[in-house]
Amino acid sequence: MTAFLEQYAALRRGCAERSAGGIRWVVSEELEGLGCLHGFTLRFGGVSAPPFDTLNLGYNRPEPAENVTENYRRLAAAAGFDFSTMALCNFCHGDGVETAAAAQCGWGFPNHPAFPPCDALASNDPAVTLVTLHADCMPVFLYDPAKRAGAMIHAGWKGNSLRIGEKAARRLMAAYGCRPKDLRAFFGPSIGPCCFEVDEPVKRVFDAAFPGLPAARWDEARGKYLVDLVMTMAAQLFDCGLPVENMQDAGRCTCCGEGFFSYRRDKKRFGKTGAMAGFLRVPPRA
């Protein structure tokens, strides 16, 4: 644990924004430079009405499905991939990892099959664009430029405590021969330790999943524990061999930052909120 915490102190933080056609998304410039098409959407540029204004990408929200589909079409056009290539994760706040290829394009969308309940999709097929949904839960992008394989992960507190990041990384190793030293990880915007308040039972879950890791600290003024999901994600990837120097945190909180949907924040005002998407597609092999 000491070795991890020494490295974690030097974790790279920061991200870049891209935009086209009114759509905005966050990226890692490192992953871009390695040829990995990816991003995490902000809430702008779509057709959804309040409180889902305007780029809601969750079909499980109470708004017309045709609005959500139009939002996906706009995102695909802006980010430079075909709408028909997307495969949507069937998230359940668990630790399941499924693989996807061209045969699964369209899965998770209306009038298509769905994946089994899972919280990560892995692929080495450049024909498929992996998609996960988020509204405070962490999007994690894994990419191996040597094997040109990657994974898109939905990591809420439950999935994080179940070590979904480590399980997705190990699936990449088992399915595509990836090596830990080659994998790159980007932690997209999610609820930060500034805002993620939990009570004693959840704190104990993290203590059990990450013994000795100071991921939950007591805040006397709030009377709550504040959990650092980035620390727990980095720790589980470190445990399966990724050096911290291969990881990057966007450093943006969806709850107190601007431009994001946030379940924690918006449920207090509206009782509901929209969903943002993480997307990842690996480049063709030479």
Helix content: 25-40%
Give me the CATH architecture, please.
4-Layer Sandwich
Number of strands: 16
Helix tally equals 8
The largest beta-sheet arranges its strands as 1-15-11-9-10-7-6
pLDDT < 50 stretches: none
Q: What does the average pLDDT come to?
A: 97
Order of helices and strands: HEEEHEHEEEEEEHHEEHEEHEHE
| CATH homologous superfamily grouping | CNF1/YfiH-like putative cysteine hydrolases
The CATH topology turns out to be CNF1/YfiH-like putative cysteine hydrolases
Q: Could you say how many structural domains there are in total?
A: 1
Shape category = globular
In angstroms, what is the radius of gyration? Answer: 18 Å
Q: Biggest sheet: strands, sense, closure?
A: 7 strands, mixed
Q: Any idea of the CATH class?
A: Alpha Beta
| Oligomerization category of the chains in this entry | single chain
Q: Please report the distance between the alpha carbons of the first and last residues.
A: 39 Å
Binned strand content: 15-25%
Class from secondary-structure proportions: alpha+beta
